[in-house]
Amino acid sequence: MRRFVLATVVALLLAASWAPAAGAQEQPVDRVLVLSLPTVTWGDLEEADVPALAGLLERSAVGDLSTRSVVRSTSSGDGYTTVGAGTRARGRGILDGLSFEQGEDFGGIPADVAYQQRVGVVPPGPIFSLTQPSIVERNESLRYDAEVGALATALDAADVGRAVVANADTTAREGEDSGPGGYGRTAALALMGPTGGLPAGAVGPELLESDPMAPYGRRLDVDAVAEAFTEVWQDRSVVLVEASDLVRADAFRSLATSDQRRVQRDAALAATDELVGRILGEVDLERDAVVVVGPYHTRGRVHLTVAGVSAPGFEDGVLRSASTRRAGFVTLVDVAPTILDLLDVDRPGSMEGRPFERVGSDHTGDERMSWLAEEDEAALFRDRLVGPASALFVILNLLLWPIAVLEPVRSRPNLRQVVEVAALGMLGFLPFTYLAGLLPFHRWGEGPYWAFVLLGGLGLGVGALVVGRRRAVDPLLLALGAVLGLLVVDVVLGATLQLNTVFGYSPTVAGRFAGLGNLAFAQLAGSALLLAGVVAGRIPGRRGVLLAVGLLVVALVADGSPFWGSDVGGALTLIPAAGLTASLILGWRPRLRNALLWGLSAVAVVVVFGLLDLARPADDRTHLGRLFERVADDGWSAFETVVVRKLQANLSVLTSSVWTLMVPLALAVAAYLLWVAPGRLRRLRDEPALRTALPGLGVAGLLGFALNDSGIAVPGMMLGVVGASLAYLLVRTT
Question: Whole-model pTM above 0.85?
């Protein structure tokens, strides 16, 4: 037992040591211009005539930006507050736009008086937010440890100036009170200090001009914006300029026809390009840095937005970050660390994001833009299908299990064969959902997609029956091997098939960008534990035992290695579950001491993984190393925050997830067999595959629910794999 534990731990640690370091720090700059293009996608820029923006992005490293903050749907306040914190954070809704210049009125009183009413002190700068102090209080109650205004605090400490030029007011006009919803000065929050002060910039009505055909009859005055920018574009400074006409066009969508919507969107993009051209005339692209960012998505549709960096030492190419570890993708929390990194300013420990990094690309600017637009479309397509695909898999299980336990089905060869094909086809359906990621179904449509995954899964089931017809258990061995084999090969080769597939992960959800996702882990764990039991029973003697244990070690290494699966919750789950299964395969009696040993081994492996990750450069660490970093800085409260947040996420989906239906049905089928057909249950229990695998699967299901933030979906997917396998065994071998 000790040798097996040692071999497993050594294999995992060797895999961890293969993880390479990421890119090097770029050349520091003196000034950073942040061009904020709210709601803009690469598809928008592909279709628009925007020569100034296109020229800038042609020479930039570019990527898709995931705007996810605390919740999946990101408002303007959530987006800009997250930029300013470098950590997921939330705003206060319609109150987020209440930023004012000294001398403006709000609600019939001077805005500085309104600030004193709310906070009790005078405003801390010439531009101030009435809402920022309450945003700080709100985020103190959330489980993300966000320090609102951390970017501003870091810039102040380094003597770097900060300014914002933006005004996305809708119905609010000079001398007119239209309530808090009419003020659109949310962009100021990105560089606002914790107390709500901004030392320079312009957010008032002087930036606007009347235009009867523009949304809300107002648009940015390009001359006024350019003049305001010139005043604040000083040495050692960060200036954010928002293309606020895009904000108004998006807010006006519900009031305009579809044709007029497109007209107004095109006009806003054209005006934005004119503004960018004027501003770039003041920027020395050989000396200054320009960061392009879309801080939030359009209303009512979660999608990826644009990101780009042009700076000395930042040649054209694609972006990535240690947060994503995937070329072409960065996240909103990475924006603040990127700004600080460009200026060679230390990143505060509270920032969970990491700086953008450049990855070389042989493609032209147009080709990069097309690829990034395609990835956004693929993500939207995946997001539309994940609910139906999950529901279909659950419903097929709900139909298959009751049919498989009926005695008339078992006694009729034709019906039995239908159930066998259906059970194996359900297992085959899983790898084909990943293989679908190799083809552009987001262009072909949902019909071809469903034909591919359903017919492909059915074909795999039939093929397994034909190839494995000599032995009753061989078709199941082949089907489970297909599930496990594809996941292991894919994750070792870079997890290409995990991204934008229904049981993988999506950049719009932003839970994970690399490694093994939670539902994929559930499939890997379920198939590995069952397959180990099948192999040990199928191949006699020591050879079968060693092969079965080897399969478990392969699954552990693929899932737990920071370089491959990078799945902390999965490693903590699978090590004790695989250890129990391996013990039973080896013929050892389960003992409490062994269970404790496997649990401690899981913790030890994760700790060593974390320490190895922590030894890497700070900007190259994965989420595990960053957690250890936070624990070192903030104590065990940082660990408690993560645990409580995961627990809350698990419990929040327990009553709303379709996967919850799997649990009562599994119990109902077990109760039916226990009371109505106990003989079949005993024969099923005597199957070598189940006798050795089911206890480990039970451990994996319980720990998978507790340690992964997908909650009930993890044991639900495991039950799907186990249920299809049991259905096959019920009609074939009992």
Answer: yes
